[in-house]
Amino acid sequence: MKIYSPLVLAAAFIVSGCQITPSNPNPAAVSDITVTFKDSDKFTDARDTANGPTSQYYLDELSKTLKEAAARQLTAGQKLTVTFTDIDLAGDITPGQLNDIRVIKAIYRPRMALTFKLQDASGAVLKEGDRTLMDMNYQQSIPPINQSEPLRYDKVLLTDWVKKEF
Q1: Of 15, 101, 133, 159, which has fewest CB within 10 angstroms of its CB?
Q2: Is 143 a residue whose pLDDT tops 90?
Q3: DSSP result, 145-156
Q4: What pLDDT sits at residue 93?
């Protein structure tokens, strides 16, 4: 009897063209998920330069990630509204450097504060609240395959929250 490792089995599925069916057969539409950023110019760190303004690119990337993750978890007809009240991206940009490079160290962990409201198709509130998301071990929670993904630590923080919350 042969025993195959999970990696060998995953490769076999990919090569053979097999698909894993999603756990949510009736996902919500991305358009039913609203993401806003309250006073984003006051966020702790959502910049791409040391002393620059909040990066609209970063906000757009986080919004897109959250919408896609939530659409997979919610069912059709549900509506989710998320408002970010603060963002502190993983890493830090040290002022005075020639290039604005985000330095990733354990002490610069990602943190996000947000409020949310989940409603059903009739508008009844299913769940709502305030959350502060933080990953104390963020450098160990990212698979090596994602090392080139921009905002990878922050995106994983969001997708993990969505999976746990909804």
Answers
A1: 15
A2: no
A3: GGTTSTTHHHHH
A4: 87
66 exposure class (CB count in 10 Å sphere: 0-12, 13-18, 19+): buried
CB 61 within 8 A of CB 151: yes
Q: Cα(70)–Cα(49) distance, rounded to whole angstroms? A: 29
Residue 80 CA to residue 117 CA, distance in Å, equals 6
3-state SS assignment for residue 46: coil
Higher pLDDT, 157 or 18: 157
Q: Supply the pLDDT for residue 106.
A: 83
List the beta bridge partners of residue 8.
Answer: none
What confidence score (pLDDT) does residue 8 get?
42
Sketch the domain layout of the chain as residue ranges. Answer: 25-165
Question: CATH for 25-165?
Answer: 3.40.50
Record the pTM: 0.81
